[in-house]
From TrEMBL:
Classification of source organism: Bacteria, Pseudomonadati, Pseudomonadota, Gammaproteobacteria, Lysobacterales
Keywords: Transferase
Protein's name according to its UniProt entry: Sulfotransferase
Entries under Pfam families matching the protein: Sulfotransfer_3 (PF13469)
UniProt key word Transferase: yes
Any one GO molecular-function label of the UniProt entry: transferase activity
Domain of life: Bacteria
Length: 273
């Protein structure tokens, strides 16, 4: 039986770990936190390019077979589940090649109002006050303004993912892209998960949104100096809180949720839930 491959991508702190934790309640599915596959995929692409002096012996047929085999072989070892979701923010930049390798694959991009993404990262930093985070290259000190500038850089945690998402959203393979808003996932998880199953063409599954568990990320988060990065609350529900960002920083990102802008929606047929 050929395994079905799908992908989870999008913005950080926007529910990808929560979505994976819910999906894996279904015994037919495997989903996890951000893993090594996309990075290996990217490296393999580079090493099969003209950078390699032996690339004259590597055809596009070789490239296609090796890239496809990388993903399939990894999950042949990882899980017996017939349906797999691989998670990484890089996938939004790879839609064109994924469309050829896995024509039936869906990419679910998790999104969230951008100021609250920044707020969520800053909360993690303050919670782990004794451990510098890999998010900021393990550098201690600095102000919230410096941290936010770092996040928003083109290769920063938020900046890269945001640009990758826009590339996918306004690209030519939007039929394979679904935007799942964090606000929908936590306030109406039944509707959110039904939309996911309909999008990938699989039978719906009755999930337990009162007892969600995810224990895979603790050691990774500790090593990254960011304990709690992949924590998931047992009950799926929205929370109301005041932002800890200074007002000017919150305003800086208040209009950046482009997928909610009517003019953006007119230029794409991406499914937004």
């Amino acid at each position: 039986m050929e395994r079905k491959i799908h992908f989870i991508s999008g913005l950080p702190r926007s529910g990808s770990t929560l979505l994976s934790a819910i999906l894996r309640q279904n015994p037919c599915l495997y989903a996890g936190m951000t893993g090594p596959v996309a990075g290996l995929f990217n490296t393999l692409q580079t090493e099969m390019s003209g950078k390699n002096e032996f690339s004259v012996f590597i055809t596009d047929a070789h490239r296609k077979a090796m890239l496809k085999g990388l993903i399939e072989n990894y999950y042949d070892i990882q899980t017996p589940a017939p349906i797999v979701f691989d998670t990484h923010r890089l996938w939004c930049t790879k839609i064109a090649v994924l469309n050829e390798l896995f024509p039936d694959a869906g990419i679910i991009a998790c999104v969230r109002e951008v100021p609250w993404i920044v707020d969520s990262v800053e909360r993690l930093v303050r919670k782990n006050k004794y451990q510098p985070s890999s998010i900021f290259n393990y550098q201690a000190g600095g102000t919230i303004y410096a941290r936010v500038d770092h996040l928003a850089e083109k290769d920063g945690l938020v900046g890269f993912a945001y640009r990758a998402l826009k590339e996918a959203f306004f690209g030519e393979h939007t039929q394979r892209l679904m935007l799942l808003q964090y606000e929908t996932l936590v306030s109406d998880p039944v509707r959110a998960l039904r939309a996911v199953y309909d999008f990938i063409g699989e039978p719906r599954f009755e999930h337990d949104f009162e007892h969600v568990a995810f224990d895979d990320g603790a050691s990774f988060d500790q090593r990254a100096g960011t304990p709690g990065l992949h924590d998931v609350r047992a009950k799926v529900s929205p929370t109301t809180r005041k932002t800890i960002l200074p007002p000017d920083l919150f305003r800086r990102f208040a209009n950046e949720s482009f997928w909610r802008h009517p003019e953006a929606q007119q230029h794409t047929d991406v499914l937004i839930v």
